[in-house]
Specification:
about 350 residues, alpha+beta, five-stranded mixed beta sheet, three-stranded antiparallel beta sheet, 12 helices
Length: about 350
């Protein structure tokens, strides 16, 4: 899955994992996939807000059902499942009659009969979305989600697929997590789709019994781990890549630390004077190890990619600075930026570790 995030100081989060793996590509191709009809992927709550393959839809209907009951959702949305449900249903009826809508169309003078202000409209729409009563058609240029009825967004063949029981669906999601991760703790498997903790042990036991995963021990890990039956022994990887803070390789910070000895925290919400590494910090992957991090900003007015801060990990190879500079130049070119400002990096890009 591709996690979607609104922070645009560099580039929206869902574009970056593909760049990290494929190199420069036309971002319009991903935009087209998000807007295409018939859809092959849909937006919903996977790990966080994510772009997911359509065959995940039946496996996440239990989450939609919980949202309709006011469970497993943000506190601000809960009233729309209960005492304010009539307001949400009125909005749903409006969408059915008038077609796709975004929250901004419900604010100010456009509010429906004075009932909506922007925040209330957005909360109602988000509850409808979480509950599966509307689906996201696409995102507009300002990254605003546009909503419509599921039957006007998703293929009928997908909507007509049978809905598995909640336990069976979560077990299948755990199996998908195990395949994606290869080797993982129970906590890793649960986190991939943010599943309820209580249902995980029994589902994992069933996956072990049927042979989908096998319990194993990993040297240095305190927790037991599980190996997917299709996992293959790793091989030495070569190459360099800058990773989004929301890349599947590092979004689970505890797992990243266990695998790479790399302690990583997102500091966007940390006051500036308390930040250790910066606002929007990308880990740097080099030949299979996380060896550095760099705080980046795209200044589109000046056409410049700005390195606000950079640091190397202890033991980083002597070539790290040079390889990092090469990746920064590639990223700048991909983003259509013609200049690279590395003053904030100090001597990281010039000197060996």
């Amino acid at each position: 899955m591709l996690q979607i995030d609104s922070v645009s100081v560099l580039v929206r989060a869902h574009y970056l994992p593909l760049f990290s793996r494929l190199g420069a590509y036309d971002r319009a191709l991903l935009d087209g996939i998000m807007m295409e009809r018939p859809k092959r992927f849909f937006e919903y709550w996977g790990h966080e807000a994510s772009l997911l393959p359509l065959d995940c839809h039946p496996l996440l209907r239990w989450r939609m059902a919980r949202a309709r009951a006011g469970q497993g959702i943000w506190r601000q949305l809960q009233p729309f499942a209960t005492e304010r449900r009539g307001e949400a249903e009125a909005l749903l009826a409006r969408i059915a009659e008038e077609g796709p809508i975004a929250a901004s169309a419900l604010s100010g003078a456009k509010a429906a009969k004075g009932m909506w202000v922007w925040s209330e409209a957005k909360h109602a729409l988000e509850w409808l979305f979480w509950a599966g009563l509307v689906a996201a058609t696409h995102r507009r240029g300002n990254f605003e989600r546009v909503y419509d009825l599921p039957e006007r967004v998703l293929p009928r063949a997908v909507l007509e697929l049978p809905t598995p029981g909640a336990h069976d669906a979560r077990r299948e999601l755990l199996a998908r997590s195990a395949k994606a991760l290869g080797i993982a703790t129970a906590g890793d498997l649960r986190d991939y789709y943010r599943l309820p903790t209580g249902d995980v042990p029994a589902a994992i036991a069933e996956l072990v019994e049927e042979g989908t995963i096998a319990p194993v021990r990993v040297r240095g890990w305190r927790q037991p781990a599980y190996l997917h039956r299709d996992a293959r022994a790793g091989r030495r990887t070569h190459g360099a890549a800058l990773l989004s803070p929301f890349d599947p390789l590092v979004w689970n910070r505890d797992r990243a630390e266990r695998l790479f000895g790399f302690r990583y925290r997102l500091e966007i919400y940390t006051p500036a004077h308390k930040r250790e590494h910066g606002y929007y910090v990308l880990p740097f992957l080099l030949d299979g190890a996380l060896v550095g991090r760099v705080d980046l900003k795209a200044d589109r007015n000046s056409g410049m990619l700005i390195v606000q801060q950079a640091s190397l990990e202890p033991g980083a190879p002597a070539s790290t600075g040079e390889r990092l500079l090469e990746e920064l130049e590639r990223m700048a070119a991909w983003l259509g930026l013609t200049k690279l400002d590395t003053r904030g990096a100090g001597r990281v890009l010039l000197s060996p570790a």
